[in-house]
Fold Galactitol-1-phosphate 5-dehydrogenase.
Amino acid sequence: MQALVLSDVGHFDLVTLDDPVPGPGEVRIAVTESGICGSELGGFLGTDGLRKPGLVFGHEFVGVVDAYGPDVPMEQHLPLGASVTANPLRSCGVCPICVAGHENVCPQRKLLGGHIHGSNAGLIVVPAKAVHRVDHLPDPSSSVFAEPTACALRAVGRTRISAGGSALVIGAGPIGLLLLEVLRFRGVEQLFFTERVEGRVAAAEASGATRLSDDPEALVRQIKELTRGLGADAVFDAVGSADTRTSATLAARPGGDVCFVGLHSADGMLPLRDLIRREVACTTSFAYRPDEFGQAVELLGRGELVFRGEVVRAGLADGQHWYEQLIKGHPAGKVVLQPSNPGT
């Protein structure tokens, strides 16, 4: 099979690898589309501490069932050629963290395209229990966005935001756009966002959100003017810089919620005395549980959630170009690579 392999920091090679063989309980999928995640850009540059040269990136994908390994339960068997996606996050399922329902932060978790070869390739092997059939849905190809959508579903669920409330999303990249979609779907009445890249603004506005200034002082002033002097009920930082984290805390109303989602900076300072005195609840959100991934697949496939950003589709051979373009600030909401699979 063909695969896009990180041969060195900042450089991919399109190479031919042996077809992976599914082991016990596994299914092989012929990949038709594989999305580039913003988290992979740090791996491309050698700064994320996870992805290393020799790895095939990719964890957002759709494809078709190609083969089964032994010992796959009959109830998990789908017809060959069935359209599917799969949860790319593998947790042990037996540790106290998993048993408590926090599979997303299992200490033994492994991510496709992070710890093990991912979907920027013609074929990929995954546990059969992780597979979700999508060809029954009106829009099965939308499942290429299931992984980031699941992240957004979890983040919104980590707050107390409810229908009729107000919310601010800082950063309208792919996760920010999907946060706005989930908030719209949940009936949040006042939606606001910030974004520095002009090419992403229209997509955020399409979810019914109003753009505010990304200047920290102006942002706080604007959000208070629009919420009767209070601030937003919930604020989501989808960037993760020191400045956006501080802005998020200052833009929340007394008794409101702040959810930190973005991972741009490893550290940051927060105005803790002010947060305590206003009793602002701060939380974090990472990845998603298996049920949230399944929910994302269904909501996208039925058109109840829509990824509204610009989508660019390109062949695997163009992968190097598009990773470079995204790092340079290309406004595309998502770049989807398409492996060439004869007969699929």
